[in-house]
Amino acid sequence: MRATTIHAPYDMRVEEVPDPVIQQPTDAVLRVLRACICGSDLWAYRGEAARQKGQRIGHEFLGIVEETGSDVRGFKAGDLVVAPFMWSDGVCDYCTEGLTTSCEHGGFWGAVGHDGGQGEAVRVPHADGTLVQLPADAASDDHLLTALLTLSDVMGTGHHAVLGAGVREGSTVAVVGDGAVGLCAVLAAKRLGAERIIALGRHQVRTDIALRFGATDVVAGRGDEAVEAVRALTKGQGAHCVVEAVGTEQSMSTAVNITRDGGAIGFVGVPHGSGTGLDLGVMFDRNIALRGGVAPVRTYIPELLPDVLDGTIDPSPVFDLTVGLDEVPDGYKAMDARTALKVLVAF
Amino acid sequence: MRATTIHAPYDMRVEEVPDPVIQQPTDAVLRVLRACICGSDLWAYRGEAARQKGQRIGHEFLGIVEETGSDVRGFKAGDLVVAPFMWSDGVCDYCTEGLTTSCEHGGFWGAVGHDGGQGEAVRVPHADGTLVQLPADAASDDHLLTALLTLSDVMGTGHHAVLGAGVREGSTVAVVGDGAVGLCAVLAAKRLGAERIIALGRHQVRTDIALRFGATDVVAGRGDEAVEAVRALTKGQGAHCVVEAVGTEQSMSTAVNITRDGGAIGFVGVPHGSGTGLDLGVMFDRNIALRGGVAPVRTYIPELLPDVLDGTIDPSPVFDLTVGLDEVPDGYKAMDARTALKVLVAF
User: Fold this and answer.
1) Cβ pairs A/B, distance under 8 A
2) Nearest chain A Cα to B261, which residue?
């Protein structure tokens, strides 16, 4: 079969790789229908996260089960399923508590020796714990299938961010970051009943999606300018709930400075300097909490799925470019150049 | 009247200062019965926090109301009251929400132009918002009065720490720091029903108090040794709830490393390097939350007071040395040398 591999920074290839086979009785093999490229894949693409030459990549996908190991109980060949961005056994202490990202037998797609999502098929370890069943008729609904793909990462991660930020009915929320996760955080905040949602971002095509997702205000500045603008919108106090969906020093510093005393930052941007942006003295004086991390999206899928199926939320606008598998390298280029927000890979 | 002043690092004096008078109609003047020296006063004592020459100091005290301004409604001369370590108006947005430390008209005792608690009397701004009434007969109960004094800071701060750490019935808690706040956090955790309380500390006289306060385990090592010991006590996972009550790089680093995935650190140690001890990459991977800051103890006094009055909790053992006002400089020396845990000043 064919799959995306990374050979060096900026050197993405689509090449022939071995077909996945069942290795453990708890495995399934899945034929990919939809995959995509994540903002966090760009850390590897740009050489800021190390990868071995030829390593597989991609961690968001859905598709059809082709084969199951002898211990798999919940799925059979032909099932339409979505995979979260990490696999997990579903039975360890952490999985039982819903923290599937800390699973004792969990792992990342594309890790050395494992398939990535940007390929024709994937071996899925711990299929029963990892996969979530989708209605069979969704397979013939192009638009719905695209929306459902966001459950593998960005929609669940946006949901994790707003939970971390403490969003509830009536909240005032500010979202730092206009990537797909930031936009999904806007949608997730709206879904939980936030009254005021301030989206920070400088790209109008993206902030337009934020408005469509429920943002009530857009702040286009950065740094001090952004802080002043958010404070002007919030009686000078800042937002009680703030989402940090970037991971850089500046984005975290902005997040701290726009948080209201006693508020919380839900952080889901993979840290690339954001620790330095965290002024603990300010957080101490103002009782600002920090809560978040890698999102246990597997846990959130059963809650978010019905809302995607019935159209209560439609995260599909985060995809603004569709490519075939052979064009995945072009998709990376487009996301790196920010000419694409998020790239869908259709098989 | 006489009060403690700081003239330079290690130069504490007790000298004649002007008697406090009502300046605002919301003021009260309070005659101090009990005060004490706080671990955080040592930052000023050691020159690590700047003070003006002759500045007043001390932020924990209780006493008798001597005089009230014309707008004070809740108190009259002769009332026995305790003051939290900051004053607050009780009516602003933040006070209404319980975050009295962010009060729009709040401030710290001993700030330039304001009285400190380590003196014979104190002008109390916003008396109605700040002070809390105590039963009159407590004034003649030496032991109880000492226990009640902890409500001005350390007991409320310990309570804030365990709330930040998410302690509840059945929790496993680890407390980093064997100072008075750390010990009060042990007591606060026990009060909220924690099942297992691991106290980290190397001074047996202090960890003995921790055991008396409800600690189930004591870990005497530091750094990696402490981390391993806590993990050995917790199935290798760490504690779900961790209190950081020191504020240094090492204490925060230890706190992060002994927190279970998905757990929370309640931080109340005034940051003096602790930001550097915070590894955001680890916190992200393991979904560790950080929540805390300067404790709004004014809000907690009404909840904690009945338990102190009826003996459900007795935080008084945190005081192990009593001095008169003239001996306050010796009290600082003893706390700096760690020969005293916490010094009570009796008038």
Assistant:
1) 94
2) A102
Residues B204 and B111 grouped into a single domain? no
Q: Do B93 and A274 touch (CB under 8 A)?
A: no
Task: Kindly report the nearest CA distance between residue A142 and chain B, in angstroms.
Answer: 34
Tokens for B255, please give them: 């706190």
Chain B residues with beta carbon closer than 8 angstroms to that of A262: 94, 97, 99, 102
Whether A282 has its CB under 8 Å from any CB of chain B: the answer is no
- If asked whether residues B8 and B132 sit together in one domain, one would say yes
Q: Kindly state whether residues B211 and B269 are assigned to the same domain.
A: yes
Query: What number is the ipTM of this complex?
Result: 0.96
Strand pairing report for A289-292 and B2-8: unpaired
Asked if B319 and B146 count as a contact pair (C-beta separation under 8 A), the reply is yes
Closest CA to B308 of B145, B82, B135, B148: B148
Q: What is the DSSP letter of A251?
A: H
Question: In Å, how far is A68's CA from the nearest CA of chain B?
Answer: 30
What's the CATH number where B115 sits? 3.90.180.10
- A161 close contact with B: CB closer than 8 A: no
Within an 8 Å CB–CB cutoff, is residue A101 touching chain B? Answer: yes
pLDDT tens-digit readout, A53-86: 999 999 999 999 999 999 999 999 999 999 999 9
Q: Could you tell me if A251 and A129 lie in one domain?
A: no
**How many CB atoms are closer than 10 A to CB B70?**
9
Chain B positions touching A97 (Cβ under 8 A) are 262
**In the listed set A269, A292, A315, which residue is the last one of a domain according to the structure?**
A292
- Residue A221 has a pLDDT of 85
A296 CB near a chain B CB, below 8 Å? yes
Q: Does residue B218 sit in the same domain as residue B263?
A: yes
Q: What are phi and psi of A200, to 5 degrees?
A: -100, 125
Token code pair at residue A171: 């909240």
The count of structural domains within chain A is: 2
**pLDDT for residue B222:** 86
Burial, B282: exposed, middle or buried (Cβ in 10 Å; 0-12, 13-18, 19+)?
middle
**How distant is the Cα of A275 from the closest Cα of chain B, in angstroms?**
5
Range of the domain at B170: 155-292
Quick one: B83 and B131 in the same domain? yes
Statement to judge: residues B170 and B56 lie in one domain: no
Domain of B208: which CATH number? 3.40.50.720
| Domain final residue, candidates B250, B269, B292 | B292
Q: Is B176 helix (H, G, I), strand (E, B) or coil?
A: strand
Of B270, B274, B283, the CB nearest to A293: B283
- Phi/psi-derived region of residue A238, left when phi > 0, alpha when psi is between -120 and 50, beta in every other case: left
B208 and B302 housed in the same domain: no
Among A169-173, A273-277, A331-335, the least confident range:
A273-277
Beta strands B217-219 and B196-200: pairing type?
Answer: parallel
Strand runs labelled E in B203-297 = 217-219, 239-244, 259-267, 289-292
Average model confidence (pLDDT) across chain B: 97
